[in-house]
Amino acid sequence: MSLKESKSVKFNHQPQHQNGHLSPSKFAKLFDPEASWDKDELGDILHWIRQLLGLVCGLIWGSIPLVGGIWFTIFLVMSSGIIYGYYAVIIKVDEEEFGGHGALLQEGIFASITLFLLSWTLVYSLAHF
Fold first, then answer.
1. Dist. CA 61–CA 48, nearest whole Å
2. pLDDT score of 53
3. How far is it, in rounded angstroms, from Cα 79 to Cα 15?
4. Residue 116 burial by CB count (10 A; 0-12/13-18/19+): exposed, middle or buried?
5. Is 36 left (phi over 0), alpha (psi -120 to 50) or beta?
6. Cβ-based neighbour number of residue 45 at 10 Å
7. What CA–CA distance (Å, rounded) separates 104 from 82?
8. pLDDT digits (tens, 9 = 90+) for 18-32
9. The pTM is what?
10. Mostly located where (predicted)?
11. DSSP 91
């Protein structure tokens, strides 16, 4: 059995709660540089981090109120920086195993842009008109 297969098998035997919530070991995995990741699992995590960032930034941008293309650019740069920092610095995955930086940085970007623009526009429109 190769190292990659043994890590995959190790993950499949972790305890899960019956109600579908993350067990403490799964939550700890989010910040464990020694944990093993498969492509779908890491993609899902990066996708949902981006969605959370899109929603939070959209709510903040709309409530302050911030307007203009510069704030959209700042969101994109900030979001990509946080995603890069997460996979390269915090969990330290080898990006080449997951298709390179481009593939990892694209994960969830279009959905997060949509959520960001929607929440930004709605909050701004409701709060300031």
1. 20
2. 98
3. 32
4. buried
5. beta
6. 19
7. 12
8. 455 556 667 888 999
9. 0.78
10. endoplasmic reticulum
11. S
